[in-house]
Amino acid sequence: MAVSSFLSLSFEKESVTAERLVPGDLAPELVLCNEVQPLSLHDTAGRYTLLSFWASYDAASRANNAALNHQVGQDDCVKMISVSFDRYASVCRASIRQDRLSAADCHVETEGANSAVYQAYHLEQGFKNYLLDSEGRVVAMNVTPKELASYLR
Q1: If you compute the radius of gyration of the chain from its CA atoms, what whole number of angstroms results?
Q2: Whole-number Å distance between alpha carbons of 50 and 28
């Protein structure tokens, strides 16, 4: 009995790991605040899309999001979609102003860990970003501004 329980737990852990997004996977659609958003992860112009998840209460993710946003602003080969997991939209808006981000590229998911997008992108182990090709497939994850610049060359 103990052996079968152990094996069962082993397989469960493997199936969770197998569900993670990896390069080559098609990115899940964005469902924010329980509504499918009209934000396309595909780009018919052949550009990359940088999908960045962050929150104002997570200093590292916020700083990385701002740095990536400023890097993207200098390049026409990539569009950015930034998703904040702040509980209150007003906190997100204040962070956007303070970080001098483009409000048009920033969106908020107020349902946090309970949201569909949080679960679809496996954010339980920390906020991430995903570089997607023009078809919406993952090219890279957790890129830094320097790495992003090298992808865009």
Answers
A1: 17
A2: 14
